[in-house]
Amino acid sequence: MVELIVVMVIIGVLGAIGAGRFFDRSEFDSDVFAEQARALLRHAQKTAIARNAPVHVLLDANRIALCHEASDGDCPAASRVAAPGGAMGAAASSTHCQADGWYCLGRPEGVSYAPSASLRRFFFDPLGRPLTADGSFDGLTLSITGSGKARAVSVTRETGYVQ
Fold first, then answer.
1. What pLDDT, on a 0 to 100 scale, did the predictor assign at position 117?
2. What is the DSSP string of 65-76?
3. Confidence of residue 40 (pLDDT cuts 50, 70, 90)
């Protein structure tokens, strides 16, 4: 009987500690957003190489999106890069991207991100190198924050390596 009470107390303590993690999703959402941002950037680079044509990456306050052609920071429907699985599926992507089938990643609630520079648009050239409209690129680091914990997504200057 004593063993049963001790086991119940231990389960109660573990439940109380673990339950808090399930009510605050922003830490999990920020981890997932960082991994999805890395995958999106890698896909942009590989698509540019495979198509032998540039792929543009658009960064704004609520989304990261891919386009084959981007004028004035806008992405016409005909030039949107298709999502590999056909749709992104997340509620934040549906809200902020406003189109299905487009490789656009919406920022979840409770998660913030900021680029290291005032860069809002760049592209991968047919060789997979990242460039801006003026032909330069000094590297990029996206700082993604949720629940006070920061994650970094980086694009290396010369090679376009995403880490």
1. 78
2. EEESS-BTTB--
3. very high
**How does residue 18 score in pLDDT terms, banded at 50, 70 and 90?**
confident
- The residues spanned by each domain of the chain are 25-155
CATH 3.55.40.10 fits 25-155, yes or no: yes
Lookup: tokens for 57? 């990456």
**Hey, is 142 helix, strand or coil?**
strand
Nearest 5 degrees, angle CA 134-CA 136-CA 140? Answer: 125
Query: What are the residues whose beta carbons fall under 8 Å from the beta carbon of 53, sequence distance 6 or more?
Result: 68, 126
Other Cβ atoms less than 10 A from the Cβ of 159: the count is 12
**For residues 5-34, average pLDDT:** 81
Spatial strand order of the sheet with 63-67 comes to 104-106, 63-67, 55-59, 121-124, 130-131
